[in-house]
User: Fold this.
Amino acid sequence: MIILEGINRIFQVGDQQVHALDDIHLTIQPGEYLSLMGPSGSGKSTLLNILGLLDKPTSGRYVLEDREVTSLSDDEQARVRGERIGFVFQFFHLVPRMSAFENVELPLVLAGVPPAQRRERVGKILEQLDLTDRAHHRPDQLSGGQCQRIAIARATIMHPSLLLADEPTGNLDSKSGADVVQVLEQLNAGGITLVVVTHDAEVGKRARRRLRMVDGRIVEDEAG
Amino acid sequence: MLSRDFIRFAASSVLSHRTRSALTTLGIAVGIAAVVLLTSIGEGINRYVVAEFTQFGTNIVAINPGKSSTLGTPTGIFNTVRPLSLDDAAAMARIPHVQSVVPVVQGNAEVEGLGRQRRTMIYGVGSQFAEAFKFQVAAGDFLPDDDPRAPRAYAVLGSKLKKELFGEAGVLGERIRVGGDRYRVIGYMRSKGQVLGFDLDDTVYIPAARALDMFGREGLMEVDLLYAEGAPAEEVVAGVKRVLISRHGGEDFTVTTQQQMLDVLGSVLGVLTFAVGALGGISLLVGGVGILTIMIIAVRERTGEIGLLRALGATRHQILRIFLGEAVILSAAGGIMGLLTGVGGAWLLHLAMPAMPVHTPLSYILLAEAMAVVIGLLAGVAPARRAAAMEPLEALRTE
Ligand SMILES: Nc1ncnc2c1ncn2[C@@H]1O[C@H](COP(=O)(O)OP(=O)(O)OP(=O)(O)O)[C@@H](O)[C@H]1O
Ligand SMILES: [Mg+2]
Assistant:
């Protein structure tokens, strides 16, 4: 379960303060499927980054799986990111010199999982995503949709409980976008909590719970 | 993260920029090659000189008149300095462990034989000279064991002098003049070659007492003692001091063991080798700056990757180690290249100029490689720390 209480995020730009998140209160149950929409600059990415421990709130409380995570040390936060949270980015963020296989393998390498076990786990997930024949291709030899599916494989190889996607289809044509959404929804069906930031109303509508942000506040929260 | 994965990861990024990495590596390689080559030459010279010195054996003690506090030429400036006499030399023969005693007087004089003349080095020595310094006679005998104070006028020629004066003709029994006095040649020596620049073949050996007379000297220039192999040098030195102090009434002489001479020589030559190596170290420094530059560029280029790794759970420490690892891979590879070039160069130099003494001890090779690794670490530490200090989100955004 995720609990956000009174989360504020204020950026200091010169002598100007940007209130990117303004007193956010939000509870997310395990296995929920949320979409986060709203105009540009409304704070969607900022909220997602705080959920993913990539950014720290200026004030407020964040509880993830019964643990207050805002006060964790740098190394402990890195560990939570590695084990409990998966990220999917708009621009994939694959390492260009590494093959698809090696990119998916990265979190396992960082966590010190031995090679034999890594091969098995990566092989399995690539098979599920129908990417086995692309395993040894580098990102520049793959289509955008394939890249994003590789990125999703990488985000979920550690079996996290929370998957965060910031405009995962923003860089894809509608066909591969639909494929990516389908993969994400399959993962959610498997129990993972899914939060998707999107500008695409079609994509946003699919979520069971839909949040709308304006000026750093959640102005709509509808389910069903 | 497993160690081999660190290495694999760091190596993958090094290999992804082949040209750039090769050039950076080259910088270190040149430095290491220079260090190895220069220290090889330094060490070669070192060994050559020490070998020259020790060819007479290491169990030699030299006694010179006059007291000097440091090693080197004794200064005989005090009135109380009594000359070293032939009797002093004879007395030292009774010191325990001493095998031979060689009084030495040296100078230049005209030598005349078969109507030919040559100005050359005269050694006034004792009869045990050849045995003590392992010089061998080619024909005839060395100076006989006469009464040291009234030896017969016999002379032994160095091989070159013999050739200059007599050519291939027999020389035994011939009469020569040394500094105007008449001598009979009773033998000549095998060629000994140059020793530290002195031509020991262009010389004539005569009894020390006669050399003293000829040069008008009061005392000997030096007395060399050869003591039994393995006997403690300190005991011999103590024996010399006991005998000479009781004869002279004070310590107005200097005793130098071969070991002391070697120690001084070794430290002088060691400094030389070090200085020459340090010269090569300058180019190594340049190579280190190359690694620093490339690592700064790499960290800047791969900021997005750093952010990604942090998002995937990498700790700051892991980021630090990855970039340090890259710097060390570059420098270690350069080190190996440099070692191969340096050792190969030393070998070629030896082939091209056999007279040039070159020697590369294994310890230098290991030390040079360790130095390369340390330089990689030093050059890598600042960029790697910068990479580790990045905030994950900011790093992610810069792509
Ligand atoms: N690092 C930063 N420094 C200063 N201001 C920032 C920073 N990051 C975000 N902001 C500001 O915070 C506000 C919210 O930004 P955020 O990126 O969360 O918007 P968003 O809803 O994701 O927009 P978009 O749909 O365009 O991605 C914006 O006004 C933005 O300018
Ligand atoms: Mg955004």
Observations:
- Residues 174-189 of chain A form the longest helix (16 residues).
- The radius of gyration of chain A is 17 Å.
